[in-house]
Amino acid sequence: MVKSLHSILSRRERQIMDILFRRGRATAAEVMEELPGNTSYSTVRTQLRVLEEKGHVRHEEEGVRYVYTAAVPRHAARKSALKHLVETFFDGSAEKTVAALLGGEGRRLTDEELERIADLIAKTRKDTPGGSR
């Protein structure tokens, strides 16, 4: 994927993809039930068809119903969204992103979470050519 999945989807399309990732599979009616606001069934069907044309969604026919699934693995979408977030809000800097997470006003990290983060950093240093600086 050359372009970030996050940046090429509209807000409503991202909401639909989130529903499909969460549920695994869903009909248009099930997607419609979970979408915020008032959206008609035909609008949801159209948006699912557009997502399918873009290659993000696929469907299977079960009787007269179409059941939709995400064509893109969740980890790929997660990576794409994170890349978009880092580029948009943190000038592409992993350091600024981590600093915001660690120093944020949100919830405090537990000692166990900090230890796992430290382990990830140590593993990245070990696995990176030129490793520990």
Describe the protein.
A hairpin with a 2-residue loop joins strand 1 and strand 2. The chain starts with a helix and ends in a 6-residue tail after the last helix. It contains 7 helices and 2 strands, in the order H-H-H-H-E-E-H-H-H. The model has no long low-confidence stretch (mean pLDDT 86). It has 133 residues and is mainly α. A two-stranded antiparallel ribbon has the order 1-2. It folds into 2 domains: 66 residues, Arc Repressor Mutant, subunit A, CATH 1.10.10.10; 43 residues, no CATH class.
Just give the CATH class of the largest domain: Mainly Alpha
Q: Percentage of helical residues? A: 55-70%
Distance separating the two termini: 32 Å
Beta-strand proportion: 5-15%
- Using the CA coordinates, give the radius of gyration: 19 Å
CATH topology of the largest domain: Arc Repressor Mutant, subunit A
Major β-sheet annotation: 2 strands, antiparallel
What is the count of distinct domains? Answer: 2
Number of helices: 7
